Amino acid sequence: MNKLSFHILEPLRFPLINRIYKQFYPAGKAKKDEVIWVGEDEKQIISCVRFKTIEDTHLLTGMLVIPEYRGIGISEQLLSATLTHIETKPCYCFAFSHLVPLYQKAQFEVIETHELPHFLASRIARYSASGKDLVPMRYQKPALSQNNC
């Protein structure tokens, strides 16, 4: 695989993302009011993640790595590339339970539903009622190192 470039997707390219979602994650769909980050090489988009801004928070949603590229660290690279965006506002995600360790590596912490802003708590309640196994998480910026060198 060639070197990946991680960047915000230009709105004109949203139809490409929606084709990828339709093929690999039918519940996902890019919307014009979202910020979408992608990882791509010179041939194709390999990964993407969307950020919805709701009130004064970000909701990280719809992260996808094309199946043939899973398990080689692309999702970690994508999350790392988006830190400048993640750190601009409080950022939450609803992780599938098997992906909690991935998000924890990216400094998201598991929280209780009652710790979510009300508009996110109602959203995760709806998702959970439909049978989705989701865990609420919040990004926690790492504390500065205590080294006094």
In short:
By secondary structure, the protein is an alpha+beta fold. The chain has helices at residues 14-24, 74-81, 83-86, 100-105, 118-129, and strands spanning 5-8, 35-40, 45-54, 57-65, 91-96, 108-110, 134-139. It has a single domain (5-139), classed as Aminopeptidase (3-Layer(aba) Sandwich), CATH 3.40.630.
Describe it.
The chain is of the alpha+beta class. It has one domain (5-139): Aminopeptidase, CATH 3.40.630. It has 5 helices and 7 strands; from the N terminus they run βαβββααβαβαβ. It has a 7-stranded mixed β-sheet, sandwiched between helices. β2 (35-40) and β3 form a beta hairpin. The protein is globular, with a radius of gyration of 16 Å. The protein starts with a strand and ends in a 10-residue tail after the last strand. InterPro entries: Acyl_CoA_acyltransferase, GNAT_dom. Residues 1-142 form the N-acetyltransferase domain. Keywords: Acyltransferase, Transferase. This is Acyltransferase.
What features would you highlight for this structure?
single chain, 149 residues, alpha+beta, seven-stranded mixed β-sheet, 5 helices, globular
